[in-house]
Amino acid sequence: MRKARWAAAAAGVVLLVAGCGSEGGSDKGKGGAGSSGSSSSAPAEAGGEAGGSLDAATVAKEVGDAATAAGFTEKPSDDVPAALKECMVSWQADDKKVTDSKKSYDTTVASLAKGGWKESQSVDQQGSTIKSLDKSGWTVKASHQGKAGTFLMITFMAADNGPECEKVFREDLEKNKKP
Question: Cβ(75)–Cβ(92) under 8 Å?
Fold first, then answer.
């Protein structure tokens, strides 16, 4: 079951990366903790860090810090597969431990924006809000879906848009395809 969930997440990230293009981003290699990768020769996007691209650890810290400061508690979830760790960050809020999820979501997004993340897309319809935020070749999809008392899910999924990570996402998706 976990493998199926990550295959679906990887598929979503492939779409995220493909939809955002392959410019910028770090050219992280084949994934895994030992991967060193080199910085992309493409200039960092507006609001990016001077002198280089973000890495997964920095993105995870920025998202986690913004979300917890806004009143969210991280909900334990499956780990990102080893091959994707250098290219993807996943952070899910525990909807049972927040007073006003929409306010905390909006505060998290605002905090990320203050930290240099630029909103590139926003969809708000039928109880779902999804915002895309870009910084130094990474895209965070911030999602608030449903409402308390029924179904509520708040997630922050980030992907490195660089070509090497796009390749890693596609390989993972192909590997997990069902015959």
Answer: yes
Q: In sequence order, which residues have a C-beta less than 8 Å from that of residue 55 and are 6 or more positions away?
A: 26, 28, 86
Dist CA 179 CA 161 (whole Å): 28
C-alpha 150/C-alpha 54 separation (Å) is 36
Q: What's the pLDDT at 85?
A: 94
Amino acid at 18: A
Neighbours of 139 (CB within 10 A): 25
Query: What does the alpha-carbon distance between residue 17 and residue 157 come to, in Å, rounded to a whole number?
Result: 12
Q: Counting Cβ atoms within 10 Å, is residue 107 exposed (0-12), middle (13-18) or buried (19+)?
A: middle
Is the sign of the CA dihedral 128, 118, 86, 17 positive or negative?
positive
Which residue, chain included where needed, has tokens 């499956």?
78
DSSP H helices, 1-142, are 2-20, 56-69, 101-114
User: What pLDDT, on the 0 to 100 scale, is given for residue 147?
Assistant: 86
Alpha carbon distance 153, 57 (integer Å): 23
Q: What pTM was estimated for this model as a whole?
A: 0.72
pLDDT of 124-140, one tens digit each?
A: 998 899 999 999 999 99
